[in-house]
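Researcher: Go.
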Amino acid sequence: MARSFRVSGLPPDILAQLRQRLIASQFSQYAQHAAWLQKQGFTVSKSAIHRFAVANAANLQTVDEGRGKMDVETRLRCLDIASRQTANEAETLARADAFLRWVRGA
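Model: Structure:
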């Protein structure tokens, strides 16, 4: 039988995925999140997930919005740099994608 966990006791990678799932579901569908966690091997009640979401909603949304803003700014900066180095649109986009991969460490 799977071990029972409170949300705060989940491994960091599972907790990060749960945070993204909560944001994507607009902080709803707690039964589905509990079922997903069960498939991952963790028993967490939908009530525990709801309590975690309510307590952390503002922080989770701020982190996600900040990450999105940074991603847009990073993309625009890569395009700006690439446009200064290339002559045509296709080459600019290809170089901007290469810069973005480099920035992300891929």
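Model: The radius of gyration is 19 Å.
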